[in-house]
Amino acid sequence: MDTARRRGFTDHLEETLLAILMGAMTLITFANVIARYVFNSNILWALEATVYLFAWMVLLGASYCVKINAHLGVDVVANLVGPGARKALTMISAFACIVFTGLIFVGCWNYWGPFANVPPIPNLYNDWIAGPLGLGEIESRWRDQAWYEVDSVPMVDWLRFIEPVFNEGESYNYIPRFIPYAILPFSMLLLLFRFFQATRRVIRDEQTLLVASHEAEDDMDEAAARAAGEKV
Q1: How far apart are CA 26 and CA 33, in angstroms?
Q2: Which of 28, 73, 153, 191 is the most buried (most CB within 10 A)?
Q3: pLDDT, tens digit, 9 for 90 and up, residues 97-136
Q4: Residues contacting 193, CB < 8 A, separation 6+
């Protein structure tokens, strides 16, 4: 895969996944309505599946909004200062967002890890502070939870190849939790990537703020200007 194709893939990753998730939610909900009102039946796993799909959409939407600069925020101070100070404030905000998202990613990975039977990211306190300074360590509660299943979404046959790896050859009746929970570290890693991209745009003066203007008048004027340009 060349650089252009790889860039195109990452540029449209959220849109593709969000479209797939929205389509899946629509199909499952529609099928459940038909089952209930036409066949007087019910798809027992439909509600849980749509909840997971909706959670995936929300978490992916966070990085998507960073990519298109659609997050709302308070820009009063930034608008009161000159371009140089505004860029400095934006860089401070970008650094804070990167650090915060990195910490959230570590937490998400360490929460998801036991369900996938993968090792955790080293504990910041235990490994970098308590050990060198001889302080008391926080008890680690890491244990294998790969056998945990969701409540009602049945296991599909084409995924049973994971059973020898994650469940010691035992069959899953329902899909293991590490599959829907995988969106936690994945979405935070993608969000971190988008913040790095936004920071690079700020450095190159391609973007002024990390948040969009939330003034309705500005948004309407901008939309009207785009519409006028398209007509011309």
Answers
A1: 11
A2: 191
A3: 899 999 889 888 888 888 888 777 766 555 555 455 444 4
A4: 10, 63
Give residue for tokens 């300074």: 133
CB distance 15 to 60 below 8 Å: no
Return the residue matching tokens 């009102």: 37
What are the tens digits of pLDDT across the range 167-188? Answer: 777 888 888 998 999 999 999 9
Average pLDDT of the residues in 32-46: 85
User: 101, 192 in Cβ contact below 8 A?
Assistant: yes
Tokens of 213: 């203007």
Q: Which amino acid makes up residue 28?
A: I
User: In the block, which residue shows the tokens 């997050």?
Assistant: 71
CB-CB contact of 169 with 163 (8 Å): yes
In a domain, 31, yes or no: yes
For the beta carbon of residue 143, count every other beta carbon within 10 angstroms: 7
Query: What Cα–Cα distance (Å) separates residue 173 from each residue in 116, 154, 162, 181?
Result: 17, 6, 13, 17
Residue 45: count other Cβ atoms within 10 Å of its Cβ.
17
Domain membership flag for residue 230: no
One-letter amino acid at 99 equals V
Residue 5 scores a pLDDT above 90 = no
Q: Containing domain of residue 135, as a range?
A: 3-225
What local confidence, expressed as pLDDT, does residue 1 receive?
Answer: 47
Give the number of other Cβ atoms within 10 Å of residue 157's Cβ: 7
- Report how many domains make up the chain: 1
In a domain, residue 65? The reply is: yes
pLDDT at 219 over 70: no
80 within a domain of the structure (yes/no): yes
